[in-house]
Amino acid sequence: MNRAIPPIVSIAMACALPWMALAQDARPGPSFHEAVGMAWAIDPVRTELQVGHHSARARASAAGSWFAGGPTLSGEYMDDHMLGSNEGYTTYQGGVSVPLWLPGQGSATKQVASAEAASIDEQLNVEHMALSIRVLDAAAAALIARTRMDVAHALYDATARMAGNATHAVHGGELASVDGQMAQAAMENAHNELALAQEEAQNATTALEVLLGRPVVPDLSRYGGGDVTQARFVSPRDMEDNDPRIKVAHRNVEAAEANMKLARRSFMPNPEIGVDAIHEKQYGSPWDDRVGVNFSIPLPSEVRNTPIMSEARNRLATATSQETQARRMVHLEMMRVRERLIAATTARQATRSAAENMEKRAQAQERAWRVGEASVDTALAARQAAANTRLASARAEVEWHVASIRMLIATGVVP
Fold first, then answer.
1. Residue 384 CA to chain centroid, in angstroms?
2. Which of left, alpha, beta for 87 (phi over 0: left; psi -120 to 50: alpha)?
3. Domain at 263, CATH number
4. What CA–CA distance (Å, rounded) separates 365 from 19?
5. What gap in Å lies between CA 415 and CA 31, rounded to an integer?
6. Which of 47, 86, 276, 400 could form a cystine bridge with 348, CB 3.0-4.6 A?
7. Domain count, the chain
8. What is the pTM of this model?
C-alpha cells in the first residue's frame, strides 16, 4: 500500500533541489586577477577609450604636417560672349594655395593631441580600477548571498529535525500541541528564509555573470592581510600620487595648458600662399600666358580671438579645479579604505568567536529540550541566534577579504 509523503519530507525535497543546483556552481572559482581579466576583455568602456586613444594619436601625427591644412584650388573663366561683341577675348585662370602654420602653432597643436592621448591612457587605468572594484563588489555580494543560503539551509535542517521530533512527541502525548505548532511554525519560517536566500544568491550570481561573461564566482579567500603588508606603497601620499584618478586629472591639466598655448599661437587666421597661372586669348595681344604668386593674410580681430582665449581659460580653470577635487576625494577614500580594513579585521575576530559559542549554546539547548530540561521556544530561539551569528561571522570573513583586496587596489595592485 502506497503511503503519502510526510509534509516535512516534501518541503525538504523542494528546498534541496535548487540548493543543490547552486551548490554545484559553488566549487572553487578563478582568482580575482583572472576574474578582472575576464571582465576587462568584454568591457565596452575599454573599447571606447581605446578608439579615442588611437584618434588622439592620429591627430598628433597629423599635426606634424608641413602645412596647417589641405591645399585650396581656384579657377576662373571669362570671355566676351555675354557682351555680344564676340571679339574672342577669353581668359583662363587657375591657382593652388596652402595654409601656413603661425609661429609655434604646429608644435602647440601636436602637444595638445599628445596630452589628450596621454589623458586617455590614464582614463583606461581609471576604468580598469573601477571595473576591478565592481567585480570585487559583485563577487562579495555573490559569496555573501551563497553563505546566507548555506546558513538558511542549515537552519532549516535543524528546525525540520526539531519539528519532526516535536510531532512525534505530540503524537505520543509527551508534548503539548502548542509546542508542536511552535516547532512547525519555526520550520516554515526557516523554509521561507531559505527561499529568499536562494533568490538572492541566484540574482547575485547572475549580476556577476554579466560582468565576467561566465557563470563563475572568483575565490576571494586566498587574499588576506599578509598581501597588504607586501604592497608597493605604504605612505598615503605615495598611494594618492599613484592613483589613476589623480593621474588623469593631472593629465587633463597638462592638456588644458597645452590648449592655452595653442590659443595664444592662433592669434589670427592662418595665412595662405600659392601660385596662379593665366592663359589669355585676346585680339592683337602680344602675350597669352602668365604665372604669379598669390597670398592671403587675414588680420587679427578681437571678435575672433576673445572667444578662443576665453574658452581656453575656462578649460584650464575647470581642469585645475577637478585635479584639486580629485586629490581631496582620493585622500578621503584612502582613509576610509584603511579604516574599513581595521574594522573588518576586528569584526572578523569577534564574530568568529561569537559564532562558535552560539553554536555550542544552540546544541546544548536542543539537548536540554529533548530531555525535558528546556522549553521548545528556548531551543528554537537559541538555534535562530546561532544561525544569525554564523551568518554575521561568514559575512565578516568575506568583508575582511574584500577590505584586503580593496587596500591592494588602492595601492595600484590587482591581486
1. 38
2. alpha
3. 1.20.1600.10
4. 28
5. 8
6. 400
7. 1
8. 0.79
Q: Is residue 213 part of a domain?
A: yes
d(CA 217, CA 215): 7
Give the Cα separation of 46 and 134 in Å (integer): 14
CA distances from 320 to 26, 65, 244, 300 (A): 48, 31, 16, 29
Q: What domain range includes position 396?
A: 32-70+104-271+309-411
Residue 204 lies in a domain: yes
C-alpha cell at 205: 550570481
208 to 58, 138, 140: CA distances (angstroms)? 37, 5, 10
Residue 298 lies in a domain: no
CA dihedral 196, 197, 199, 203 (to 10 degrees): 140
Q: How far is CA 25 from CA 12, 28, 170, 206, in A?
A: 20, 9, 40, 12
DSSP for 13-62, please give it.
Answer: HHHHHHHHHHHHTTS----HHHHHHHHHHT-HHHHHHHHHHHHHHHHHHH
CA–CA separation, 341 and 406 (whole Å): 9
Length of the chain: 415
Cell of 47: 573599447
What does the pLDDT look like over 78-109, one tens digit per residue? 877 766 666 667 888 889 999 888 888 888 98
**309 Cβ neighbours under 8 A, 6+ residues apart:** 263, 264
**Positions in the chain short of pLDDT 50:** 1-26
Q: Could you tell me which of 262, 273, 255 has the C-alpha nearest to residue 316? A: 255
Task: Tell me if residue 248 falls in helix, strand or coil.
Answer: helix
Going by C-alpha positions, the residue among 200, 56, 30 that lies closest to residue 121 is 56
Distance between terminal CA atoms of the chain?
A: 62
Q: What residues pair up with 294 in beta bridges, in sequence order?
A: 274
pLDDT on residue 232:
56
Angstrom distance (rounded) from CA 330 to CA 333: 5
Is residue 278, in this structure, part of any structural domain at all?
A: no
Judged by DSSP in three states, 350 sits in helix
How many angstroms from the chain centroid is the CA of residue 268? 43
Residue 369: C-alpha distances to residues 7, 165, 189, 191 (Å) = 23, 10, 20, 22
For residue 77, which amino acid is it?
Answer: Y
